[in-house]
Specification:
Ribonucleotide Reductase, subunit A; 370 residues; mainly alpha; binds fe (ii) ion
């Protein structure tokens, strides 16, 4: 395969065509300039794995082995894919934004996701030669709405603002974990990309949590309906941590390319056989606490929100495709399809939500940003 992209300027032109092709309204982006941002690293030394103590690699040439170079390229491709996919999923929400404030938040989130994709493609095009240009080109060719994106969460539909808040709360929060793990990378340009991306990402998480808070406090959307959106998105976020006993996570660690979430503070040696599980467990502690915080806002007579069990509706790992309930009981395989229609959002739920959200009082108001 070959690509027509020869330089990063060529890629930028392709990026503009992608915006047009997906139907993004570019007028909303006028205040944003897309740029690369590289932060400072706390240390130039590799902090974990077999190359601990050596200098981080500034160029692909310095990475000692082809398999390692391929692994870095892969991390960048997967990260970039999520960034463009989320814009494909989200931009239709412009038409149904509940307020100017929400419109502004959506604009900023999408602009920053595009910047993250831009950053990843800058790495690919400037460091990885022909293979990098080819992948940067492909990142603009897959489409979430044709289910071609690389990870499950990013092929699902976001058709409502409740999807958006639940997505940014849980799926963008997975992103925070991935970015932190890559911030420790031995490949210095990748590690340097992560600080500015993490800073921007924290705004997205805030939009998610705060959106859910506002919906609860307005008291109009039934908690049972919100729960269905948790059931839809949280299992996809669990999947994003990858399979258990992952060989690629093992090698990514041994080669110093992707660290643990808490690499700089965790004194214990890494359990290299359970890297994905360990990251997912930390994530679950965080989202459990945030869900408990939201539950404190729900009036006593109403149900509480909860996180679906680890086993429910998984597409990756030991429970992939297995018929488990949201509370982790194993179901009869024949009963599973009907069960899913009870616990996941259905057309009737979407119609109910559409009716509820016709008036802006379904979430508490916020002042537009200056
Ligand atoms: Fe992002
Ligand atoms: Fe994000």
């Amino acid at each position: 395969m070959s690509t027509h992209l020869a330089t990063f300027d060529d890629w930028v032109a392709a990026f503009r065509s992608w915006q047009e092709d997906i139907g993004l309204d570019r007028r909303h982006l006028e205040r944003f300039t897309f740029d690369t941002k590289y932060g400072d690293l706390a240390s130039d030394e590799i902090a974990f794995g077999d190359f601990t103590g050596a200098r981080r690699w500034e160029s692909v040439r310095q990475i000692p082995d082809q398999r390692m170079r391929d692994a870095v390229l892969n991390y960048i491709v997967y990260q970039g894919d999520t960034e463009f996919a989320s814009v494909e999923q989200q931009h239709h929400l412009y038409d149904i934004a509940p307020s100017t404030y929400d419109f502004q938040c959506l604009t900023r989130v999408m602009a920053e996701e595009m910047r993250h994709g831009y950053q990843m493609c800058h790495l690919l095009v400037t460091h990885f030669g022909h293979a990098g240009r080819l992948e940067a080109d492909k990142l603009l060719q897959r489409r979430a709405y044709h289910h071609q994106r690389l990870l499950g969460s990013f092929n699902e539909d976001i058709t409502t603002w409740l999807d958006f808040f639940t997505f940014t709360q849980f799926v963008d929060r997975d992103g925070k974990y991935q970015l932190r793990m890559l911030s420790h990378s031995a490949f210095a340009p990748l590690a340097r990309s992560m600080g500015p991306m993490l800073k921007e990402e924290s705004f997205h998480l805030g939009v998610g949590y705060d959106g859910l808070r506002r919906v609860i406090q307005a008291g109009r959307v039934p908690i049972a309906l919100m729960q269905k959106f948790f059931n839809k998105w949280v299992p996809t976020a669990y999947d994003l941590f990858g399979s258990d006993h992952s060989g690629s996570a093992h090698w990514g660690y041994v080669w110093g390319l992707k660290g643990r979430y808490d690499e700089e503070t965790c004194a214990a040696p890494a359990d290299r056989e359970r890297l994905n599980e360990t990251a997912r467990e930390l994530y679950m502690v965080e989202i459990r606490a945030l869900t408990a915080r939201l539950n404190r806002l729900i009036p006593a007579e109403q149900p509480r929100l909860y996180l679906p069990d680890m086993t429910f509706h998984r597409r990756i790992g030991a429970y992939a495709g297995e018929p488990y309930s949201v509370t982790g009981e194993r179901l009869q395989p024949e009963a599973y399809a009907a069960y899913l229609t009870d616990v996941l959002p259905q057309p009737a739920d979407l119609a109910c939500l559409a009716a509820l959200t016709q008036t802006p009082d379904w979430l508490t108001p916020k002042q537009a940003m200056a």
